[in-house]
């Protein structure tokens, strides 16, 4: 019920419809058996991804001219995420991360790039990648080892990107490279690259703790010739890549908040149901006050996380239109990411505790929610880096309370 106070009136019918669509889709196609299989085999669920694309659940706020769902608010994408991930943490997350980084192309790409590369991804036919991280540069990407040396109309890319989501499934994506090493972060550029181009080699990275249906890999670039037309946004965007990457991360981090919210809800639903059925000392454990205390804390944390996620997605609408300073948005998205992901750990941990020994077993699934959620505190900026972002915005006067 709470959401009716949070959702502006003009969006309510649209949000109600997308929530229903996402929920029905997830309840119809997400089975426990499929989730276990995907988790065990570390395989991407292509069938589900395609079906989600057909229903407009991928890139839901991207305008229809690029094949997107054309929703009027980013809140729509938060609600889709919440519903998919609440139903199943593994399958829901896979569908969402299939298009990771695509919004950067939508915001910063040329018209031709957007028309060519966005539709196949939002239709669920292709995945996408956004490659910043390198073996030597994770939290600190102010200086990169991947270089792009200019040779006439071409740039020659050399280096390694690691931990890249969809590296093994995507046919193309975005890579950040150092075009002017002396200028450090003022000399970086975003390039669109295809994985079948000469000099590109992809190496899968297996054995993740969670989110095991969402593939990651290494992208090795060994003298890859990229025409200047493949600079994201065209040649005017040369050396602006670092800033564009951070501007995009403001959106990505906000989306991670929605993912973690869905994961908390998933674990809560299971714990609440269990607490009503499990009898100990002659009564359902929900009658015991120490269990009630946990449930009360879970409800508080989920309720306030939802507030943070909905608020930041509504603010994203203005940010995408250029009405909010990027460093102000950075503070808002970091606050959301930290608050929701850190509290997801607490909520899912309580869920495991409520289930007792069953909580530790894969059959009861909160174990998987735990594994799936843990990386939300690490990727797209660790909690520590997001803390620094908040303080920086406050000290420079971009955010105040
Ligand atoms: C499943 C998964 C998917 C990913 N997908 C992608 C992707 O698609 N694209 C991509 O580019 N990257 C991706 N990443 C990489 C991810 O963004 C990085 O792992 C993350 O940014 C942290 O970098 P790092 O692992 O090198 O850790 P490091 O930067 O080495 O950090 C190690 C620890 O030191 C801390 N630390 C670092 N600097 C400071 C500081 N100044 N103050 C305090 N503490 C600090 C960190 O918070 C962390 O706790 C993915 C990672 C994973 C695990």
Topology readout:
Layout: H1 3-6, H2 12-29, H3 32-41, H4 46-54, H5 74-87, H6 89-97, H7 102-108, H8 111-122, E1 128-131, E2 147-151, E3 154-165, E4 172-178, E5 188-194, E6 200-205, E7 216-227, H9 241-277, E8 279-280, E9 283-284, H10 289-320, H11 326-355, H12 366-374, H13 383-395
Parallel strand pairs: 1-4
Antiparallel strand pairs: 2-3, 3-7, 4-5, 6-7, 8-9
Helix pairs in contact: 2-5, 5-6, 5-9, 5-10, 7-9, 9-10, 9-11, 9-12, 10-11, 11-12, 11-13
This protein binds flavin-adenine dinucleotide.
Overall description:
The two termini are 28 Å apart. A four-stranded antiparallel beta sheet has the order 2-3-7-6, with no helix packed on it. A three-stranded mixed beta sheet has the order 1-4-5. It has a two-stranded antiparallel ribbon with strand order 8-9. Strand 8 (279-280) and strand 9 (283-284) form a beta hairpin. The chain is built from 13 helices and nine strands. The protein is α+β, with helices and mostly antiparallel strands. It folds into three domains: 3-122, Acyl-CoA dehydrogenase/oxidase, N-terminal domain (Butyryl-Coa Dehydrogenase, subunit A, domain 1, Orthogonal Bundle), CATH 1.10.540.10; 128-237, Beta Barrel (Butyryl-CoA Dehydrogenase, subunit A, domain 2); 241-395, Butyryl-CoA Dehydrogenase, subunit A, domain 3. The mean pLDDT is 97. Helix 5 packs antiparallel against helix 6 (89-97) and helix 11 runs antiparallel to helix 13. The structure holds flavin-adenine dinucleotide. Flavin-adenine dinucleotide is lined by residues 100, 129-133, 138-139, 163-165, 208, 211, 216, 375, 378-382, 384-385.
């Amino acid at each position: 019920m709470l959401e009716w106070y949070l959702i502006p009136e003009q969006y309510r019918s649209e949000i109600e419809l997308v929530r229903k669509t996402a929920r029905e889709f997830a309840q119809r196609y997400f089975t426990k058996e499929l989730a276990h299989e995907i988790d065990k085999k570390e395989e991407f669920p292509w069938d589900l991804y395609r079906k989600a694309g057909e229903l407009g659940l991928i890139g839901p706020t991207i305008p229809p001219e690029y094949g997107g769902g054309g929703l009027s608010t980013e809140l729509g994408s938060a609600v889709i995420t919440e519903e998919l991930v609440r139903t199943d943490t593994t399958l829901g997350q896979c569908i969402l991360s299939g298009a990771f980084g695509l919004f950067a192309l939508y915001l910063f790409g040329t018209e031709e790039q957007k028309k060519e590369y966005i539709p196949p991804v939002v239709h669920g036919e292709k995945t996408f990648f956004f490659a910043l991280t390198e073996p030597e540069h994770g939290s600190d990407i102010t200086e990169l080892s991947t270089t792009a040396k200019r040779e006439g109309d071409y740039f020659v890319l050399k280096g390694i990107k690691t931990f890249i989501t969809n590296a093994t499934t995507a046919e193309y994506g975005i890579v950040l490279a150092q075009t002017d090493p002396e200028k450090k972060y003022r000399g970086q550029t975003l390039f669109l690259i295809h994985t079948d181009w000469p000099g590109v080699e992809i190496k899968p990275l297996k054995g993740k703790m969670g989110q095991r249906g969402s593939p990651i890999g290494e992208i090795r670039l060994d003298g890859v010739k990229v025409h200047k037309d493949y600079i994201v946004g065209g040649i005017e965007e040369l050396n602006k890549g670092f800033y564009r990457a951070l501007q995009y991360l403001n959106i990505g981090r906000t989306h991670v908040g929605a993912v973690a919210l869905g994961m908390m809800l998933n674990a809560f639903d299971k714990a609440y149901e269990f607490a009503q059925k499990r009898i100990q000392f002659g009564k359902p454990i929900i009658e015991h006050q120490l269990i009630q205390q946990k449930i009360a804390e879970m409800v508080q944390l989920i309720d306030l996380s939802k507030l943070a996620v909905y608020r930041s997605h509504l603010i994203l609408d203005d940010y995408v239109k250029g009405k909010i300073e990027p460093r102000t948005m950075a503070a808002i998205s970091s606050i959301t990411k930290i608050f929701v992901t850190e509290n997801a750990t607490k909520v899912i941990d309580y869920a495991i505790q409520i289930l007792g020994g069953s909580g530790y077993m894969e059959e009861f699934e909160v174990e998987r929610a735990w594994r799936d959620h843990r990386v939300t505190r690490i990727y797209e900026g660790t909690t520590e880096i997001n803390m620094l972002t908040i303080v920086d915005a406050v000290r420079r006067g971009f955010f105040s309370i």
